[in-house]
Amino acid sequence: MLAALALTRQIQQAEVVKQQMFREKKKEADSVARETRKYIDEKEAEKRKKKEKVMKEKQEARRVREESEVRKAELLKTEKLRDVKMMAEVKVQQQEQQARQDEAAAIKRAQDDLQLLWLKDEECKLAEHRRREELKCLRELEKLEREWRKKELMEAQVKAEQEAVITRERRQQVEERQKARMAAAMKQKEELLRVTDHWMITEQRERSEH
């Protein structure tokens, strides 16, 4: 009985430890989810800023082109029209090329950011899958432990019943041996009394004959 109580106490303590581990894992998963959401928000804000920068650069390039056209119209009236026109065109081409390069770089950065977000999303999905698998394994372990505990309790009950039966049988055997010894002693005592009575009767008879 004491062994069964000790076993039950150990099982209860193990159940408390498991529940504590489950709460810690849940707390850790919630923290990872918050950090992931924060990272995604920061990346989206950075993406918006980059997009605004690209739009401003495009507007600046368009403004430069418009100003260049105005200057070209004014320079047509001068003798240096050809040189100024050529320089303006070269400058505009350079600005347009720079704008295209900046736009291409911005697009590449945006694509890289999207790729990174996709990877982070996949990592989150994988982490969620692992968490579900861990919960599944934990439930399986709890099920196995419940079955094991039930089996141990049943075995302990069977063992206790068997020991009780053995104790009763041993007690009965001891009582039977005691009864047998007492019966033998009584029989021996009766035989001794019978012999003693016979001897006394014989002795009295012999005395009376003399």
Automatic annotation (TrEMBL):
Keywords: Coiled coil
Ranges in a coiled coil: 141-177
Boundaries of every Trichohyalin-plectin-homology domain copy: 4-209
Region annotation (Disordered) ranges: 43-63
Pfam families: TPH
Record's keyword annotation contains Coiled coil: yes
InterPro entries xrefs: TPH_dom
Composition bias, Basic and acidic residues: 54-63
Superkingdom: Eukaryota
Protein name per the record: Trichohyalin-plectin-homology domain-containing protein
Gene source species: Cherax quadricarinatus (Australian red claw crayfish)
